[in-house]
Amino acid sequence: VSTQSTGGNEIFSLSLSDSSLSISYLLGGHRDELWALAVHPSSSFFVTGSNDKTIRFWNFNDRQVVLDKILLVDDQVKSLAFHPLSTPINPSEHSKQNTNVTNHLAIGTGNKEQRKAEIRIINYETTDEVFRVTRTNIDSIDALKFSPSGRFLAAGAGNVLEVFPTFDLSKPPLRLSGHSSRIIHLDWSTDNRYIVTNSTDYEILFWSLQSSARVSPQSVRDVQWATTTCILGWGVQGIWPEGSDGTDINALQLSNDSKAVSYTHLRAHETVLDLVC
Predict the structure, then answer these.
(1) pTM of this prediction?
(2) Confidence label for 94 from pLDDT (cuts 50, 70 and 90)
(3) Is the CB of residue 180 less than 8 Å from the CB of residue 159?
(4) What does the alpha-carbon distance between residue 65 and residue 70 come to, in Å, rounded to a whole number?
(5) Which residue has the higher pLDDT, 17 or 169?
(6) Which residues are 11's β-sheet partners?
(7) CA 236 and chain centroid, separation
(8) Cβ atoms of 206 and 185 closer than 8 Å
(9) In angstroms, what is the C-alpha Rg of the chain?
(10) How far apart are CA 87 and CA 92, in angstroms?
(11) Under a CB-based contact definition with an 8 Å cutoff, are residues 235 and 221 in contact?
(12) Rounded to 5 degrees, what angle do the CA atoms 252, 255, 259 make?
């Protein structure tokens, strides 16, 4: 038995017996910084995206990458999002006939050298591309999220919020301007009517899809949010250390039962806090 490593951070076990060679996959990962992660809504799988221009599917149960579901893309991967009504992933049955409209994975990429970014949607079962749009003069798509109903896809394209109708992608997106710097986080309300966004200059803006415009914080004070990933806001101000310059917290996630919040710190550690109401 021999173990071999590769340039892609993979480790394989090679076993030779009775003149036959068997190869087992032991461990693997990305070759560069990891910037994107999305958990499948109904299966024990999640996906990660990296500056190495790959998207990898992982199995929660065995904590390993699914080898036949490593996707290569043109540019660095900066954001990922599963459609909320996605059907379960069966790694042993990748049917090419499965073209369910909800089996969609949205991908946000960036190319800093060429100053371009792309928003793509693929069918994650067949890996066929469903939709692609390119934006120039911006470095990357850093925020990407489907609405709870799955009817819309919101993306931060530079300092502009774009909202795409997922069941008719031939229509132009709704474009909402107001930020003065790059959008890096966004969340939807549970009723699919509002979006909150954070930008790199620490702005918190709220948007109404009904009026297609920015709205005041007071108008959304009673709104329930489907997710809490924005690092700036009244409800998460307690995560910020005293004297912070605004760069300490990189990512945040509220638990499904709203009883705990997890966030990552600039010093590369993760903290979980219980919420007391």
Answers:
(1) 0.80
(2) very low
(3) yes
(4) 8
(5) 169
(6) 5, 27
(7) 20
(8) no
(9) 20
(10) 15
(11) no
(12) 115
